[in-house]
Amino acid sequence: MSTATRKTWLSRRASEAEESVTLAMTAKANQMKEKGIDVISFSAGEPDFDTPEHIKKAAIDALAKGHTKYTAASGLPALRKAIAAKFQKDNGLAFDPAQIVVSCGAKHSLYNIMQAILEEGDEAIIPAPYWVSYPAMVKAAGATPVIVNTEEKDGLKIRPEALREAISPRTKALILCSPSNPTGMVYSAAELAALADVVAKNDILVISDEIYEKLVFGVPFASIATARPELKDRTIVVNGASKAYSMTGWRIGYAAGPKEIMAAVGRMQSQSTSNATSIAQYATIAALEGDQGCVEKMRQEYAKRRDYIVGRLRSIPGVACGEPQGAFYVFPRVSALYGKRHQGQLIQGSVAMAEALLEKVHIATVPGSGFGADGFIRLSYATSMEKIKEGLDRLERFVRELS
Ligand SMILES: Cc1ncc(COP(=O)(O)O)c(C=O)c1O
Fold first, then answer.
1. Quick one: 318 and 283 in the same domain?
2. What SS3 state is found at 255?
3. Are 173 and 118 within 8 A, CB to CB?
4. 363-364 and 205-209 strand pairing
5. Same-domain pairing of 255 and 303
6. CATH of the domain at 254
7. Are the C-beta atoms of residues 184 and 325 closer than 8 Å to each other?
8. What DSSP assignment string belongs to 94-156?
9. Atom of ligand 1 nearest to the CA of 45
10. Are 255 and 305 contained in the same domain?
């Protein structure tokens, strides 16, 4: 074929893939930092704490012992056993290690699951605001994301009636995230039970992203997999080491669910990445089986920051902020400020808002549009209290300068 007739070397999937808006904002902020600009970053989706020492030591020990070779593609048997024990202890969920696949981060788990269950013509229901990667992953599997908007009066959580209405004969799965990125909202057991009733009456699966499970403030964590007995066989639970143990760079995520589905996930992974990094798997055994005091220490610190940041945001005119009960994000509504100008620059929409905040007062946030909610911006408080204080001073100044 001559180059004149070839339109592109890229596949349709690759052409349509969008860059993650979160990573794009972080990259822009980093470029400014490299130029010596004092940027305060509220954009990163990762804990600011170091990985706890005993976990690092387990990786060093694994290295010293020569555990540097391929492991079983779906993960070390000892790790899958530790994960099964975690599900039993924390969630009351009994999984056989054969129902568990360890992947290179929860993002990889989610990607594999979608590849394993979705295809052309399928639909996956995603409540908005959603984590940026869900629609992209659904599309990458050839399926169609069906976005269901939620309302602030419902805590930005999907209502059972809205779920019922969104289900069609093509629906394959509901993708649920609690605690939520980006809103920080946490579904209660009763709310999950009401959603589970709808799921149980329809022939659909649930992908339950529970990566922020350990980061809840004053409310209990509940999994939809336990909301109704029927749901256990319909839910694929996703979790990982990144957020709870501050191990984002180690790239360990895992999923558990119905045997047939998880076997397919394992087969697909065996033909792509194979196993997650061996020494990171050993480190995760130590994380899961070791003292959980480190998680609690980090959780308490996040809770203090959340209280501070919510209080400050609520005191800024034009900014409306609900109280997140989990994760490490706040998702204030800033749409009351749209249409105003900062030093002549029109702020219309969340992208313009995030860009102006970065350029004018050097704070990096993430526009809500990336999460399917343009009226909002996301701020991560996985950064020191000192930086949070300074960043909020700047945000407040920026808002006061709007006209
Ligand atoms: C909701 C949600 N799910 C999954 C992930 C992926 O985490 P991991 O680092 O384990 O790939 C993230 C990370 O930002 C997330 O926010």
1. no
2. strand
3. yes
4. unpaired
5. no
6. 3.40.640.10
7. yes
8. ---GGGEEEESSHHHHHHHHHHHH--TT-EEEEEES--THHHHHHHHTT-EEEEEE--GGGTT
9. 14
10. no
Predicted local distance difference test score (pLDDT) of residue 4:
60
Q: Which long-range contacts (CB under 8 A, 24 or more apart) does 335-341 make?
A: 335/374, 335/375, 335/376, 337/399, 337/402, 338/375, 340/402, 340/403, 341/402, 341/403
| Helix (H), strand (E) at residue 356 | helix 350-361
Domain boundary among 289, 314, 340: 289
> Do residues 343 and 257 share a domain?
no
pTM over 0.90: yes
Helix (H, G, I), strand (E, B) or coil at 320: strand
* pLDDT for the residue 44: 83
Kindly state the percentage of the chain with pLDDT values over 70. Answer: 98
| Residue 5 is assigned to a structural domain of this protein | no
Residue 209, ligand 1, Cβ within 6 A: yes
Ligand 1 centroid from CA 211, angstroms: 6
Segments forming the whole domain that contains residue 37: 12-50+294-400
Residue 181 CA to ligand 1 centre (angstroms): 9
211 lines ligand 1 (CB under 6 A): yes
8 Å CB contact between 150 and 187: no
